[in-house]
Design a protein that fits this description.
Length: 462
């Protein structure tokens, strides 16, 4: 082999131009040829390795991967490719070993930069995978055939599967119930049109509400999947609560209407009807015995008719919606107090010095009026009060009304169980307000309500 390399000048000229390092070794492990690239790789002077034993020149390689590859290639007479890091050269080397009965020819490549880049890529991929596995959202990567190429740990939690078991499998074959779902259509559209799509979908088999962020590329899809099941459950609960509140408002409204009808019936029967019946009887007596007409009897008839007219006026006043266009809320409340309470028995007052009439729209003013009317009715029925005071106040955020009396009070109720108080609470809650009660036996009763100011249109007319 040594003579062959020496005599073939044309061949030597050719291999010198090859960018790979080349050495030739005879059966006794003597180096018979080294091209210039190999000398540079080995950091040796030209010709310094010729006729030297390779293992004596590179003793640190003995029993190493290069040593084993050379021995195996020589013994089995087959080509072997080996890569290893040389501590002597401080480089990564790839060697391709070609055997023959006359020895070995070895092609060397310095792959240090390549291996460093691979190591950086591996580290980068490891960091990326670590990041993806740590994010709270699920993440999957799919190829063009919608096969999984990456699945993070969160996805495993969501679908109750080992993430590794999904790799290489088609998403629609693994989850056939999702075919033709909103998510299926979004995946297909995102890949076909190569545009980002986000969607929300519910997957019944896993009882999973998911919010998908789908990023396409020519190679497939990258998808972040957010579990929004808790949020959806909360939304359902809130909607149910709203429906329950609306139902309670409807019930309270119907109860209030029934209460008003009962009140009207009682007032007409107990007061107006009795007065009219008494007057009718006296007029019948006068008709049948005109000679015995008594001035007292006629005066009594006129008195009864006046009372009936007054009772009828009171009932009408309670039923008719106050005209908030012609009179302010304060004026309407003043008229309400004058109508409902006898001035020589119950002292009434209104403090509206801190109230701005423009802070409430008409629906809220009407609600405030009805609440005051309701509470005044309660005072007449139960309080045995000597004084009743209304306080109105408002700022840029809140309207406040306080209705208080010095009556007998009561044990503070835990809930608004009575029809009257429940009707008040329903009206206040309807406008997003709050109502509080302060009372105890022998110490009067205070009703305080707050409403947000501004113009709002309620969903129901109360």
């Amino acid at each position: 082999m040594r003579e062959s390399f020496k005599s073939n000048a044309k061949f030597r000229s050719l291999v010198e131009e090859i960018s790979d390092g080349i050495i030739a070794i005879d059966p006794d492990w003597q180096i018979v040829y080294v091209n210039q690239t190999a000398e540079k790789i080995f950091n040796r002077k030209a010709g310094s390795l010729i006729e030297k034993n390779i293992w004596e020149e590179f003793p640190e390689s003995v029993q190493g991967r290069f040593y084993q590859a050379y021995q195996e290639a020589s013994l089995l007479q087959k080509k072997i490719i080996v890569e290893d890091f040389s501590k002597t050269l401080d480089r990564w080397i790839r060697a391709t070993v070609y055997p023959s009965p006359k020895g070995l020819v070895v092609y060397f490549n310095d792959i240090t930069n390549e291996r460093k880049a691979a190591i950086r890529a591996d580290k980068s991929e490891a960091h990326y995978k670590e990041f993806i596995d740590r994010v709270t959202d699920g993440f999957i990567a799919l190829d063009k055939e919608f096969r999984y190429v990456y699945v993070n740990n969160k996805i495993g939690e969501l679908v109750h599967r080992d993430p590794k078991s999904l790799i290489g499998k088609n998403v629609w074959e693994e989850f056939p119930d999702a075919v033709n779902s909103l998510t299926y259509k979004a995946f297909q559209t995102a890949f076909k049109e190569q545009r980002f799509i986000s969607n929300i979908d519910y997957y019944q088999p896993l009882q999973l509400w998911q919010e998908n962020y789908i990023y396409p590329s020519p190679e497939g899809l990258s998808v972040f999947i957010k579990d929004i099941s808790d949020r959806k459950k909360l939304e359902v609960e809130l909607r149910k609560k709203e429906r329950d509140q609306q139902f309670e408002i409807m019930i309270a409204t119907l109860e209030a209407q029934e209460k008003e009808r009962t009140f009207i019936g009682q007032e007409l029967h107990d007061n107006v009807n009795q007065l009219l019946v008494a007057s009718k009887l006296m007029l019948a007596l006068i008709r049948d015995n005109p000679q015995g007409i008594s001035g007292t009897m006629l005066s009594k008839c006129i008195e009864n008719l006046d009372k009936a007219i007054e009772e009828n006026r009171k009932i009408s006043h309670e039923l008719v919606t106050p005209d908030l266009k012609e009179q302010t809320l304060v004026e309407q409340l003043q008229a309400l107090l004058q109508t409902m309470f006898t001035s020589d028995i119950i002292e009434t007052s209104i403090d509206a010095s801190a109230f701005n009439e423009q802070s409430l729209d008409d629906p809220k003013k009407l609600a405030v009026y009805r609440i005051a009317q309701e509470q005044c009715t309660n005072i007449i029925k139960y309080a045995k009060a000597g004084k009743v005071n209304l306080q109105l106040a408002s700022n840029e955020h809140i309207f406040t009304m306080i209705v208080m009396d010095d009556g007998v009070g009561m044990k503070k109720p835990k809930t608004f169980a009575g029809i009257g108080l429940r009707n008040i609470a329903a009206r206040v809650n309807f406008f997003g307000g709050d109502v509080q009660i302060k009372t105890k036996p022998g110490n009067g009763f205070v009703l305080k309500l707050t409403l947000p100011v501004g113009n709002t249109v309620p969903a129901y007319s109360l």
